[in-house]
Amino acid sequence: MRERMSGKLFSQLTLILLIVPANVQADKPVNFETEVAPLLEKHCIRCHSPGNPKGELSLESAEHLIQNNYLSAGDPDSSYLLDQISSSDGTRPAMPKEGEPLTKDEVDIFRRWILEGAKWPEDVLVREKSKADGSWWSLQPLSLITPSMHEQAPEDWNTNPIDRFIFAKLKENKLSPNPPATRRELIRRATFDLTGLPPTPEEVDHFLKDDSPEAYRKILDRLLASPHYGERWGRHWLDVVRFGESNGFERNVLINDLWPFRDYVIQSINEDKPFDQFIREHLAGDVIGMGNPESEIGSAFLVAGPYDDVGNQDADQAAQIRANTIDEMIRSSAEAFLGLTVGCARCHDHKFDPILQRDYYSWYATFSGVRHGRRVVATDQEKQEHQAKVQPLQQQRDRLTQQLAELNKNILQQGLTKLAEYDKKWTREPVSRLGCEETFEPVSVKFVRLISEGQDSNFRNRNSFGIDEFEIWSKESPSRNVALASQGAKASGASRHIEDFPGAYGPQIAIDGKTGERFLATGGTLTIELPQPTTIQRIFFSSARDEPNPAQRKFAFVGEYRIESSLDGKEWTVIANSEDRKPLNSQHRDHRLRTLEETPEHRQKVAELKRELAKVNQQLAAIPPLPVVWVGQRVASDAKGPFHIFLGGSPQRPGEEVVPASLAVLSKSEAKYELKPEAPESERRESLANWIADNQNPLTSRVLANRIWHYHFGTGIVDTPSDFGYMGSQPTHPKLLDWLANQLIENNWQIKSIHRQIMLSQTYQQSSNYRKDAARVDGDARLLWRFPPRRLSAEEIRDTILQVSGKLNKKMGGPGFRLYHFMQDNVCTYAPLDKHGPETYRRAVYHQNARASVVDLMTEFDQPDCAFSISKRAETTTPLQALTMLNHSFTMDMSKALAERVINETGENLDQQIKLIFSLCYNRSPSAEEVAASKEMIQQTSLAKYCRVILNTSEMIYVN
């Protein structure tokens, strides 16, 4: 037995011996579940699981042990495994390769297990244990806790339940809260918090004069009703859902029809749409809201992330790219809504959280039918009305197109009857990208031009073609190439233009003596001017002279051509053409026959039909098209199963079958589901959406409540907002988090009510004053003994500068503006603009953010790259921030605009000018010392330069 076994089996069987627990009593039967399985989980399953079957052996169940006589039940001496986990000469056994070897007692127990029949109960699966299990805090049902009054708390801190939670934790840590913030601080804080803009001087004055107890509540109501609220909090959500308007990866092409999703997010948040409905629309809006664009557009979430559209002809690589695409949807959905890193289970069971690889591929089956792309998003009535206008014209167009096709077919049939006659005239070899040679009687020329009469890949296209080198050879002996630029020749002709690589495909490439690059003609002509008249007799030109497989080149070559010469550049004579060359293929032959057989009558009839067709096409073009949006497409064939676990994450290694289902660790929830393999693609995503948004799902409401808290205080109760698992942070106030989550559900998942509860609390309204004694205990103010001050986000900084200068265009929605110059060839380039014109003076949320692009001021102030979901933003301090703010033309323009504004509103009174600037930028009045210093600077420089300094101050961009 042992000699017959392969080395692979030898290493595989070895692992099973790790099963045996130590210090067992020999007279008791070995209990597989309590003695063997734990050792497999501890020592073996990490390397020998379905997702990571080293040596092609999985130890999750008995299946692989039974195959190929891996062990001999009842006969330990014939079981190959014992050789691997034991050693007779005192050396280390072969297995396990890592960790401590099995003890003598453990080996003995394994021997007895085999002797007793090596029984493995069918219902026992061995799995590597994650660090967290089903008892993990975030997976537990929401606790129903109402905090009791705290006898040591001030009266105001016992009113709002939020304050009771916070005060109790402060007292635990022997801390006390700060006093309330000033009213100026409070309105500035609340206004930036809810709208991302500063309060106006009039709004501040009105609040300061309002002595009613409801004054602050009225401020909150006004701000929550403002359309700017949706713009600010919509920006938060767009970070979470990795919204970006280019596809990333190598090509990074702009997506110009994804902006409706941004507008949908802003509108939904302004309307206080219940967030459970919002989530359902993100995952299945095209299912539950088909025919209702206001809901259907929500499913653009699935395709709002980066997307590799390069494509690959290799089937294995194409499958891998597709798997990566679905993986991006899985990760984004799980992190945004559940705060779980489900994507970590792609290759194996999650190492830290109780998420199985089977869970991951259940979601894979769920998203399998979604493809990136665009389609019409309109109501049923709009589609019917549009079709009623378009259909008659389309039928007319089809009729005319058919008539044209019949004419061409008839004339082709006529030409085919003369094919033998034409064949005798086509004596030379077809055109070749490797090179075409033309010889002719010597002729004196100063100009030579190549004119395309059809591409080799599209015989109707006479314009674009590629030339790597065009040679003109003189009659003299020895003959020389007089077309070389080094000989004084000049080339001209319209060519492909690439802004970020100027001259890359220009005409001079065709006469530089090299063949590595191509002149890409777009006008159908290449003209060479010689330095002086020269007698020539040969021309040679090519498109892929040095290519091993020129047919694979993507650039077209000429399929039909003529070459003309001239002495003055005005009068031209044909000196060569391709008329006597053989056709490249049957399509080329047919094109030639049609051309040769055309008669004046035929051309006239074709021209008439084309005129009619052009008129119909013009009428069709005049009908406004239905809106087309990058919202994804449902491809039924992609959703056909069966679906499998990918072993090691490789699509080429299918494992066991899976079906769409909810996470196994939450299988006790009433909302759990498991669908049949043949369930429609739409039912899968709708089931997932309903399960995620169900009130009984403990993760969704916790994660959302924590995100809201995070954006109000700068740090969440869990400071890893998209990771509520083992590798995330523990909550500082777990009971408060559950209370907020319950409040969210009780308020129909509408988040404006949560804003009010948080912002009406004393916790939120306290000052941000720093106290050394408190900071020694809680330096980051995680326990909220003070309100944490914050710097404005990149978008807020830009929007604020525009607002105080009086230049902010508050137009909402529609296609975005760009702060970069976009250049596209095969890949795309984004060059930051040095000058920002008035067309860019909108709120930054409407900027067309492209992945991997740089946008000067906003990039310097930590606007994130939207290639990934951003659960919280960085806040760095760098020299470039100061340099950009001080020197960028945008800041200088806004400084001048601010100066003009204050002059227009206050006249020439310097004191009033300074007071207005402070009120606009700082929401306060200047002190006497500040007025004196400001006057001195303005008198020594100018008001515009003084405004430039103000725009560069910390107080301008920090909120206390």
UniProtKB/TrEMBL annotation:
SUPFAM superfamilies: Galactose-binding domain-like. It comes from the Bacteria. Residues 684-937 form the DUF1553 domain. The keyword Signal applies. Residues 1-26 form the signal peptide. Keywords: Coiled coil, Signal. Residues 161-371 form the DUF1549 domain. Residues 44-99 form the Cytochrome C Planctomycete-type domain. Residues 383-410 form a coiled coil. It holds the Pfam family PSD1. This is Planctomycete cytochrome C.
